[in-house]
Amino acid sequence: MADVSEVAIDTLSDADGHIIEPGDLWVERLPTELRPLAPRFYRDAQGVFHQEIYGIDIASLEVMYGAIRPRDMLENMGLACAMGVDLDRVFGVEEADRHTILDAPRWTIDGNARLEFNLDHGVGRAVLYPTFMLAGGSFLPNLAPAACRVYNDWILDDYCAASGGRLIPVAALPMTDVAAAVDEVRRVTERGFPAVFVRTNPINGLRYSERAFDPLWQAIVDTGLKLGLHPLPMWDQDGTSKGYGLRDIMAASCLGFPMDMMYTLYDMMAGGVFDRFPTMPTMILEAGAGWIPSMFERFEEHREMFGRLKAPEWKTPPMEIFERQMMVTVEACEETDIQVALAFLPADHVAVASDWPHYDGTPDLLGGFRRVAAELELDEATVRMLATGTLERWFPSR
Q1: Confidence (pTM)
Q2: Less CB within 10 Å around the terminal CB: N or C of the chain?
Q3: How far apart are the first and last CA of the chain?
């Protein structure tokens, strides 16, 4: 194999980065009648961090979603921009000194600064997802459509517009109102978005395999958009955190990202979604990749045994679905995940990602990827495919 030190990899494409939304975005931009319900986050005169939604200061609640203390949720929000930050500053200091989402560096909120940061750190192009609005699609149906519109217009017009296509926005959808989600798919397509995303949780108990969501999948196919499946393992919707009653963000982060993804893929496959919509390009995001080969083998064993009786709409083996219409992201510095993925998955279905600026992001992404490539003795073609090639296939440069 080629010595990776001789492979001139000076740039990565980031298949899953994040932005930080301004805390007053919705208070300022929602329709006037909805502003009393607007989500917002701010510090009071004493420097204490607050988050409000539906007119409720969540710190005033005794418990949230039946499982987590509001204090814990407020602390967790500091993880959103904790890349390179000592977590003692997120969890272990007095409230007025705590690192919060409001302490995000400028590049997370300002697109021009983000492009400069990316280029300075060896990232030429980046597909960008929200942070707070990862949950926006599951807001109450009287708020979710407008909240998503505000966010989508902001990330397109204010954050990404001046990047010359190097910052690629992905739109949020109001999943608590399927008809509104279909409308938003059509609207963001007209505005120039290349992709939309959904959380990997049933929405208010409704699974994505239910026929109620078929108009949404059809709209995504009809408009030519790509679908991102992005975990947010919080306690507000059915999933790992709520189902197991996980006690803190450590457990939710460790277990929830892959387990919620496994469930969602099983549900959509077994429910026939990918057989009904075989041309819907679907991205498996921020859940790792090493589990896919063995879990898909298990899926297939059960499809062959039970499918005729229990999942009659599931016609296609999981790995065939993956190879036909899916890709998966791997964090660029995670050696084992990349090694296992490349042993079983086509390299042109695997793309590196950063998760910047979240707590598990690695500032020296390019250096870390180079070290992994050298340790695994990857050939030049594979290195280039992971670094930029797969993302170019999915999001061609203009």
Answers
A1: 0.96
A2: C
A3: 33
Which long-range CB contacts under 8 A does 47-52 form with residues at least 24 apart? 47/95, 47/96, 47/97, 48/95, 48/96, 49/74, 49/77, 49/95, 49/98, 49/100, 49/102, 50/74, 51/77
Task: Select from 191, 189, 147, 190 the least CA-distant residue to 172.
Answer: 147
Q: How far apart (Å, rounded) are the C-alpha atoms in residues 296 and 77?
A: 33
C-alpha 372/C-alpha 375 separation (Å) is 5
What is the reported pLDDT for 7?
61
Scan for tokens 């197991």, then name that residue: 244
Report the alpha-carbon distance of residue 163 to residue 159 in Å, rounded: 8
Report CA Rg, the chain: 20
- Ranges of the chain whose pLDDT falls below 50: 1-2, 4-6
Instruction: Give the residue ranges of DSSP H helices in the chain.
Output: 25-29, 70-76, 88-91, 111-120, 144-153, 178-191, 214-223, 240-244, 249-251, 257-270, 273-276, 292-310, 318-325, 335-344, 365-376, 380-384, 390-394
Please report the domains of the chain, with CATH numbers, ordered by start residue.
4-23+104-394 (3.20.20.140)
Cα distance between residue 77 and residue 73, in whole Å = 7
